Amino acid sequence: MSWTLPRYVPRSAPVVLLILTAAAAIAFAGVGHLVARYNANQQSRGRKLYEQGLTAAADGQYDKAIAAFRAALTCDPNSPQYQLSLARALRDSNDPRRLEEAESYLLALWQRTPQDGAVNLALARVAAHKGNIDDAIRYYHNTMYGVWSTNYDANRTKARIELIQFLMKQGARNKAESELLALASLLPPNPAAHLQVAELFAQNQDWAGALAQCREVLHTEPSSGAALACAGEAAYRMGNYALAQRYLQGAVSVNPQDKQSREMLDTSDLILRTNPFRSHISDAERNRRIAAAFAQAEKRLSECAQNNGADLKTLAPTTPLGALQVRWVAVKPDLARLRLAAETDLPDTIMDVVFQIEQQTATICGAPQGVDEALLLISQRREASSQ
User: Fold this and answer.
1) In the chain, which ranges are continuous DSSP H helix?
2) What is the pLDDT of residues 140-181, one digit of tens each?
3) What is the pLDDT of residues 47-77, one digit of tens each?
4) Distance between alpha carbon 369 and the CA centroid of its chain, in Å?
5) For 116, phi and psi rounded to 5 degrees?
6) pLDDT in tens, 201-256
């Protein structure tokens, strides 16, 4: 039995080829359409998973965020946005085991776009999590000078502030100081920005730098309560109590509810009234202040002994408080010779005993208050200036 083509099927070879070609084209078009629809569905699913991941990460649910970002990557394995978000979630989960994976994703992205600001910032934060100062500095600097699609200046400033805070946390104060100076030199004429940097200087215990930033604000806003308080505290911490008094009076005048400024102002007033080494006071006033400080030191010593259940009269001279009492008694007769012009070293000798009592009782009996606090601060300032 032989098989033949139906009568309506053309038997010409070119026609057959044309038909087969058309059929193949239709098939390929159909397959292409199906592939396109599949890819579109995958991309749509990836975007939904990505949004879910962002929501979970914003809520601090990093396990859910990581799972969502991983699933999004299965839909679009080459998406740098998904990879970056997954790396961030791995890093922010605070699981040390995940840091290495986060870093591997970020390094792969960095290899492709080493100037990308967001990638460098993410790597800088990984280095900060690890406590790696050198890597953190390198990547934060890359962030500052990298490429950002928007908000270049804001991102640059934010990165430097993060670096400064990280360095201070690590105790690298000198490196933090360098970054602070660089930050201060680039600040816009914005009072809020200057106050923020002043706070960073203060955290780094650079009170001169903090004072300079507060003064920048006061040049344009002389009645700013925040700037007056900031300048007053900086001058106070520097031991410049006359300058602190001026700024703190302004701060309290603008904001009477500023308790901290009020307390520093009261202490500054006390220091300026009790300091026998202050310039432009008469010899008689100096001698009066020395005598008052000497009497106050004896009172502080007696109260400290009582708080420790001891009596100065019966304390052995080998004990710390007993030794201070012996020194105080030995110097007491010298008070009568203060008025003699030849006794030029006597004020220092007497005040050395006062300062020693205030410093050691602060260690033994805790921080003093009132005049004793003022005398202790004077002693610390005098000790610092002699070094």
Assistant:
1) 13-58, 62-75, 80-92, 96-112, 117-130, 133-144, 152-169, 173-185, 191-203, 207-220, 225-238, 241-254, 259-274, 283-307, 320-331, 346-365, 370-385
2) 999 999 999 888 888 999 999 999 999 999 999 999 999 999
3) 888 888 889 988 889 888 999 888 888 888 8
4) 30
5) -70, 120
6) 999 999 999 999 999 999 999 999 999 999 999 999 999 999 999 999 999 999 99
Tokens 């009645």 identify what position? 223
Sign of the CA dihedral running 225, 226, 229, 234:
negative
Burial class (CB in 10 A: 0-12, 13-18, 19+), 229: buried
The pTM of the full predicted model, rounded to 2 decimals, is: 0.76
Q: 214, 193 in Cβ contact below 8 A? A: no
The tokens describing 291, both together, are: 């005598």
Q: Which tokens belong to 77?
A: 């394995």
Provide the residue ranges of all domains of the chain, joining segments of one domain with +. 189-274, 283-385
300 φ, ψ (degrees, to nearest 5)? -60, -40
CB burial class (10 A; 0-12, 13-18, 19+) of residue 377?
buried
C-beta of residue 350 within 8 angstroms of C-beta of residue 335: yes
The Cα diameter of the chain in Å comes to 148
Dist. CA 46–CA 73, nearest whole Å: 7
The pLDDT, as a whole number, for residue 387 is 35
The pLDDT score that the predictor gives to residue 189 is 85
Q: Average pLDDT in the 27-55 region?
A: 70
Which pLDDT score is estimated for 71? Answer: 87
Instruction: Report the residue count for the chain.
Output: 387
Report the C-alpha gap between 109 and 46 in whole angstroms: 19
Residue 118 has pLDDT above 70, yes or no: yes
Tokens of 178: 């360098």
* Cβ-proximal residues to 234 (8 Å cutoff; 6+ apart), any chain: 198, 202, 207, 208, 210, 211, 214
Asked: is 189-274 a CATH 1.10.10.10 domain? The reply is no
* CB atoms near residue 165 (< 10 Å): 16
pLDDT tens digits for range 307-326 = 988 888 888 888 999 999 99
- Please enumerate in sequence order all residues whose Cβ is within 8 A of that of 273, keeping only pairs 6 or more positions apart, or say none: none
**Which residue in the block uniquely carries the two structure tokens 């004072």?**
211
Q: Kindly tell me the burial class for residue 372, based on how many C-beta atoms sit within 10 Å of its own C-beta (0-12, 13-18, 19 or more).
A: buried
